[in-house]
Amino acid sequence: MPGRLVSRGSLELAALAALVPASIAASQTLHLERLPFEQLAVTSPAERVVGEPGRMRIAPRGCPAAADDAQLRRRIVEIAAQEWGFFGFHVVDQTALPADDRRPDRPWRPVVWLDPEESARVAPSIAGYWAATADGAWILERQNAAWQGPAGIGARWRDPWSAAFISWVMCESGLGDDRFRRHIAHHAYIDQAIAARDDPTLSAAFVAHDVGERAVEPGDLLCRVRRAAYRSVADRRDDVGVGVRSHCDIVVGVDAERERVLAIGGNVQGRVSLKLLPATFETRGGEAVPTTIGRGTRAIFAHLELRAPSIEADALARTPTLRALAGQRERLVAIEHRLAGGGSGGPALDASPVGGDLASP
Predict the structure, then answer these.
(1) pTM (2 decimals)?
(2) Which one is predicted more confidently, 239 or 168?
(3) Which of 44, 105, 178, 301 is most buried (CB neighbours < 10 A)?
(4) Do the beta carbons of residue 67 and residue 174 sit within 8 Å?
(5) pLDDT in tens, 276-306
């Protein structure tokens, strides 16, 4: 049942969430290669481009046929989780941010960006995300110019790629243009979801709601703006069609007991990362409904609900990517140590659907 952490499976998600109060350091050493297609039917984003960084170009490729909507949420979460693993299981904990995160006295924490070797490893994948958008070709040309500059392959992406990541995930999930407006900017599909709210007959896969209107479930999107004062969908409706700096993440878990939502997004500290978003909840009809998500300038203003049947609240723990870790004790110990903030005695990474603690022999 969405939003509830009462079943055994849901408690497994709570156990997983309990591990992530701190960011993972040096995550590039912990990356997990993508699973074989037979294990998770996803084509690597790197197959959407050809050539080396500096001379890379898009190899046109369509989206796969739409799968059964009954499995759409699960597929979105599974694809996002695989990319999270490919980028090293990086975690960004925002639950400790103050109510006003713009205060000058807020403790400064360094951001660990990718080193040149890791940049080279993930460059084709990020380029492949761009390839899923209509304007990805000229974005890639701009990046080729950056790679040809003095920083070489170590040059950061000059254009934020978080919307491209979301667009690629939805493409690989089987959502065509009529159902999801893939774009280089988040506002395109935020506006599509607002239009679907105003006209339920539209075929859009997502419908926009204010935070607090509905329970949040794995597969939904949570969106915020960077340099605007949106507090609700109505605020954005006044600006529909106008560009705005925004960011959306894919919900992969809801942990009401610890007052947080787990979400995976792209271009978060240069990676596909999992965020811990602070949230407040109230119970309605047996469901935990978030009344706020995020704080300060990172407050979520729009909940884009996926028009698809619900799945388990612990869908992340059940993904093929986390199941694949069952026999990799050394990697698990390292991940668990970092998820626990480098201390000892933290709980083990639990994914009981594959047989108890993942670090167990």
Answers:
(1) 0.85
(2) 168
(3) 301
(4) yes
(5) 999 999 999 889 999 999 988 899 999 999 9
Rounded CA-CA distance 59/62 in Å is 10
Which runs of E-coded beta strand occur in the chain? Answer: 49-50, 57-58, 90-93, 206-209, 221-225, 246-255, 260-268, 271-284, 287-293, 302-306
- State pLDDT tens for residues 87-108: 999 888 888 766 655 554 555 4
Position 140 in a domain: yes
The residues facing 278 across adjacent strands are: 260
Host domain of residue 271? 8-353
User: 264, 84 in Cβ contact below 8 A?
Assistant: yes
In the chain, the number of structural domains is 1
Q: Would 163 be classed as within a structural domain?
A: yes
Per-residue model confidence (pLDDT) at position 292: 95
The residue behind tokens 């109230």 is: 282
Decide: 252 and 315 in contact? Cβ < 8 Å. yes
Q: What are phi and psi of 207, to 5 degrees?
A: -125, 135
Measure the CA–CA gap between 162 and 140, rounded to whole angstroms: 14
Q: Is 97 left (phi over 0), alpha (psi -120 to 50) or beta?
A: beta
Q: Calculate the alpha carbon distances from 338 to 56, 57, 82, 88 in Å.
A: 35, 37, 19, 11
- Region 197-223 average pLDDT: 96
Alpha-carbon distance of 172 to 37, in angstroms, equals 13
Asked whether residue 255 is assigned to any structural domain, the reply reads: yes
pLDDT of residue 33: 94
Does residue 234 belong to any structural domain of this protein?
A: yes
- Note whether 254 and 219 are within 8 A (CB): no
